[in-house]
Design goal:
The protein has 102 residues and is of the alpha+beta class. The chain has one helix and five strands, in the order ββαβββ. The longest helix has 17 residues.
Amino acid sequence: TCEGIVTEPDRFSVVKRIYKFVVRGFMSLDDSASSEGTFYDLVESVLDVLDNRIDLSLANVRDYAVGPAIVRTMEPRQFGSVLCHHVEIEYTVSIVKVVTYA
């Protein structure tokens, strides 16, 4: 989900926007199956995918920067009667875009 967009004032027909995305993950917790290690491995693989994303194929963008992905929260959470692993990963995308004036 996108938690917010910050726009810096335009200068010389250029505008900069910073998008803050949050990826949330849940997995059933099972101590007998050592689910914690599996969950950590899964989180690490998601971080790697996000950090290695180079080409976002953004239209009309002069420059952009991504990441790094940051783990904001990683903890067990109760959902109804089910205890789950929970993670929130924050990921920012900054773009510099040329704007035209009418």
